[in-house]
Amino acid sequence: MNNSNLPSLESEYPLKPESVDHYQQNGWALIRGLASPTEVDAYRQPITTLTTEYAKNYKPMEERDTYGKAFIQHMNLWLMDEQVRRFTLSKRFAGVAAKLMGVERVRVYHDQALYKEPQGGPTPWHQDQQYWPLDGVRCVTLWMPLVDASKEMGTLNFANGSQSLGYLGPMNISDDSDTELENRIQTNGFEVVSAGDMTAGDATFHNGWCIHGAPGNASHTTTREVMTIIYFEDGAVISQPDSPQRENDLATWFPGLRAGDKAASEINPLV
Ligand SMILES: O=C(O)CCC(=O)C(=O)O
């Protein structure tokens, strides 16, 4: 595939100090115009082609569980397509991730497309990092709609400051995680804030411990097409997995590595 016509995503984004403060304080930040409409449109096509094909493996909506209704989830697209590779390994995106976390350099953990179909269900409250064998490591998820996405189509909700709780134990995305974490939000009095309406190319970044979820997609016609990239600080060491999901992640995203090794397999490039 000749990439010469694809827009470059390498230029630096002029990140405002207020965004860094917001991220540090609340555990997430909304970054407007991280990619331009033209840039997003160019990369949307290969991501959507791969995800639409993958969606054929899903059962009809009414036969899925809560997790399955929330979105079509397709992972590590950057290894499947040269164009997506340029998107996921973008230095502009990685630069913002590093600055928000306050680290020198980041590596990619994995990417994933999260397509919430028309009338798709809500995304239950959860903490991302409970899936990852990266205790004590700074991690962040970039979440970017590839089409304009209103709040009603399912942009993210965040519990401000909830990253301060750290690891709350194994809790996969489910009705149970929703109930348990809603209790935590109430008990701690965390304010719940929506990212609101987003334009294609805007992005939110959230800390791996920030409790977050999303409403269902109220649209009857339009899919909430989103691409995400997960980063962690370079130099991190893999922690001992304490749950099946962390064991699974270790085998999948750090192939050939074990607890105590530097988190840097051949599929965790430095960006
Ligand atoms: O897209 C969603 O609905 C949920 C996304 C999410 O939880 C994440 O990217 O960490």
Structural summary, described in words:
- There is one protein chain.
- With 271 residues, the protein is of the alpha+beta class.
- The protein has one domain: q2cbj1_9rhob like domain (Jelly Rolls, Sandwich), CATH 2.60.120.620.
- It contains 7 helices and 10 strands.
- The strands form 2 sheets. The protein has a 6-stranded antiparallel β-sheet.
- The protein is globular and about 45 Å long.
- It binds 2-oxoglutaric acid.
- Residues 70-71, 114, 116, 123, 128, 141, 143, 154, 212, 214, 226, 228 line the site of 2-oxoglutaric acid.
Characteristic key phrases:
binds 2-oxoglutaric acid; 28% helix; 271 residues; six-stranded antiparallel sheet; single chain; globular; 10 strands; alpha+beta; Jelly Rolls
Approximate shape: globular
Q: Strands of the biggest beta sheet: in what spatial order?
A: 1-8-5-10-3-2
Tell me the domain tally: 1
Query: Largest sheet at a glance?
Result: 6 strands, antiparallel
Radius of gyration based on Cα positions: 17 Å
Distance between the termini: 22 Å
| Residue share in β-strands | 15-25%
Q: What's the CATH architecture?
A: Sandwich
The number of distinct β-strands equals 10
The CATH homologous superfamily is named q2cbj1_9rhob like domain
Bound compounds, each kind once, are: 2-oxoglutaric acid
Overall average residue pLDDT: 97
- Strand pairing plus helix content: what structural class? alpha+beta
Fraction of residues in H or I helices: 25-40%
* CATH fold-level name: Jelly Rolls
**Count of alpha and pi helical runs:** 7
CATH class: Mainly Beta
Secondary-structure element string: HEHHEHHEEEEHEEEEH
Low-confidence stretches: none
